[in-house]
Write a structure and sequence with these properties.
homotrimer; about 350 residues; alpha/beta; Udp-n-acetylmuramoylalanyl-d-glutamate--2,6- Diaminopimelate Ligase, Chain: A, domain 1; UDP N-Acetylglucosamine Acyltransferase, domain 1
């Protein structure tokens, strides 16, 4: 992963001022950059650093006029910050997808089929009849159960565990330790106080462009042919619990340690903050927003509502009530005071009434 | 895993109407079923599907009278739904225990002893002096530390991690990524603000028929010879924290993301909902029921109590108080109104008293 | 790991009474101890056991005078309990660091460099250019990403996952299933309702003497050159979420299932209880103490504050308000009663005022 300054300038549609054959392998801040690295200058208060930087190249605004001599090469562009962001994203893609080839020992069933540019890390496991698309990265210690199907450009970080029969789309990223397709939590109480396991025979379906954090768990659906569904564009953080038969609508974002109980359907473009708990068998409208640690016990019908509390209510109402909650001892005192006064007054009144 | 229709009918004590030699390899809903699959018809409103289904067989009630021609084979039974449930459970058992044999590379210490019908998945690890019963399934990436003992018919899903010295009974199921026997969280504060680690030298004891979800953690006990104990029939969901020296009574059910602090003893047949937190060194009576997200700060002496809130109180009391909480701003206004009125009244009274 | 009684006495600076050549391989309680084990007697109410114990040796107070015949060997010391604690700690260190050598198959890049006394468990993975100090224990299924640096005497329990570029100090312990350096949860909303991934290019820096529980997650920082930082002496429990760019001050202790949002800085010697949630971009003063399940939504400026509630307030204020919360239905009734009385009174007053 090394580019010449000329190649980078061409990618950005910029103009080189200086030596365009220098090699760049990394991005850095202008004050920290070293040889072989590229930085940018956008905010004038950082201009001082451009005269001393060791960066091999600096991206600057088209009309930049150096006030001292420069040792670094310049790339002139319209908007240095957004050009740098483009490079960041390209760099990120490159490092995300740089792993290639087969490390040994790793395990792939004879009946599995895999696409081009597969990375199969050491100690990874690909089960029977698994189908994997192109440019998929299977890091070390990943487990892919039998009959799973995975689309193109998907990255499975170390130790992702995928139970048999899961379906995962294109351009997904799943972080380390996450479990997809474990049994839903279903047990039927028996007369003697024990529980009988309800077989969990469905699967998990994850659409395209889904990102899932680390050590999250998504359970499979209960019935044959049913799926726990994560729609396209959903972003899940770390340590989240998604129970059996849940459906998360497209582009919904869920922060760390939230938990969604069985059979609940969350709408599209919802935002669920950290440590939220949602009861089972509910329907949440599109664009519902739930504040951190809230507990949702009822369906939400109106779109775009903001909720907080336990059980959750409208966020403004919660804060109004909580403001009074904080003064409850004072309220209690005032109430007691009133009762005393009213007692006295009633006594006085009684007196005045019985006045001759 | 393929059975003839005749074999299935015999298993259910049912009678075949049609070709009993057709092969069945899967169960399905009547509206979705394909050749090689078996479905059931119980609710009359689904009757229409039996005339068009591609299922190779359909389980129906003994007295079922088709109103049109049928292409599928019938199995006549007393109760089609419960017969189908029997098949589901048999099927589930079959797929749960279908894995057999040794996949390579996998690691088993020379000093470990294992029973019959072991499945030892690729990259699994069985440490020194480990003892494993019959028909145990050790999926890929499972780690079993030294001196661990595991009973018969227990399934360890991919990547379960068992620290040295753990004891696990018969018929247990532990899902992917769960950790058993990690160090309890014990540190002694030192004069200089640092902490010294208190050695955690006990183990974890899991009795029979226990099911544990994915990415849950159970810490070992602190002292030599002591155990963190999970009694028989307990069902734990995903992402649960069980601290050192905890004991969970038999047939207790705990939902996802709940956490139980050190040395607390939970009684038998308790039900603990998701995201509940329980403080340390408490005793909870049998059949205690705790609502989602509640925080338990005191022991519960009376059996069968239902608790909610933070700290938790009787669930009915919590809801009564919360109903008023939601109207606190209004209460505050009414209180202010009363104060104003009473002020006016007292002033009036004063006037009337001083009237000549 | 077997010592003679004489060696142990020398380690404790104690005096042997009896056979000093007996072999000890384990510690136990005096009532449970067997041959080859050592126990202690400190509390006089356990004295009875010393006359029947099978322990090969018992540590007793210097001035201990047996009242019956003894079959066990004595080690006389100043303080038997603290001597036993010393042995516990030594024993714990021994078993923690007893693993040595290379188990196969395991994976180590040609460009990695490792110190002396490395334990490299089966199926562990050490990536490119990784640098590992002396006496480091890498258990089975551990993944160490490229360019990671690890100090001396650090233990990585089974299945710890370390993303590329992480730095870990000396004397750290990380428990099974924990993930270090996964992507921060950063997404930029787009006009069409989808989200674009913000590249996460920083790393995680863990200083010395840090202990981290099982299945915890620590995300990497967002920007090049930035780190999510865990300062020396920090103790983290299981299933904790530490988001990108967080900094945890030295000797801070965090209990299980707590979550800290992005860019928040927690001071030194803070104590954070289980299931606490802390919002992003906050600063918490040194020695802040946060009660279980609290939600922190604002920075804490004053050192040593104790907080509880949701959002959290001073813990004493929370309990005072909660005491009234539990009686809210009664308060509501009293308020209604007052309103009624005052209505009657005002009516009476009106009457008395209009009296001729």
């Amino acid at each position: 992963m090394e580019f010449s300054i000329g190649q980078i300038a061409a990618m950005l549609g910029g103009e080189v001022q200086g030596n365009d054959s220098g090699k760049i392998s990394m991005l850095a801040k202008i004050q920290d950059a070293k040889t072989g690295q590229i930085a940018f200058l956008s905010n004038p208060k950082y201009e001082q650093y451009i005269y001393t930087t060791q960066a091999s190249a600096v991206i600057v605004k088209k009309d930049f006029q150096p006030r001292k001599e420069l040792t670094t090469t310049l790339i002139l562009v319209e908007d240095p910050y957004s050009s740098f962001t483009v490079l960041l994203e390209e760099y990120h893609k490159l490092i995300s997808f740089q792993k290639n080839g087969i490390e040994q020992p790793s395990f792939q069933s004879d009946t599995a089929t895999v696409g081009n540019q597969l990375y199969r890390g050491a100690f990874s496991y690909i089960g029977n009849r698994v189908k994997i698309g192109n440019n998929v990265k299977v890091y070390p210690h990943v487990f892919i159960g039998d009959d799973t199907v995975i689309g193109d450009n998907t990255i499975l970080h170390p130790n992702v565990k995928i139970y048999a029969g899961t379906r995962i789309g294109n351009n997904c990223v799943i972080h380390a330790g996450t479990v997809i397709g474990s049994d839903g939590f279903g047990f039927a109480p028996q007369g003697d106080g024990t529980y009988k396991t309800i077989p969990q025979l469905g699967n998990v379906l994850i659409e395209d462009n889904v990102t899932i954090g680390a050590n999250t768990v998504i359970d499979c659906a209960t019935l044959f042919g049913d799926s726990t569904i994560i729609r396209s564009g959903v972003k899940l953080d770390n340590l989240i619990q998604i129970a059996h038969n849940v459906e998360i609508g497209k582009n919904t974002v869920i922060a760390a340690q939230a938990g969604i109980s069985g059979s609940t359907k969350v709408g599209d473009n919802a935002m669920i903050a950290g440590q939220v708990g949602i009861a089972g068998h509910l329907i949440l409208a599109n664009r519902t927003q739930i504040g951190a640690q809230a507990g949702i016990s009822k369906s939400v019908k109106e779109e775009g509502q903001q909720l907080l509390g336990y059980p959750a209510i409208d966020i403004k109402d919660y804060f109004r009530s909580y403001a009074v909650f904080k003064r409850l001892p004072e309220l209690n005192d005032r109430l007691r005071e009133l009762e005393k006064k009213l007692g006295t007054l009633a006594a006085t009144e009684l007196n005045s009434d019985t006045r001759p």
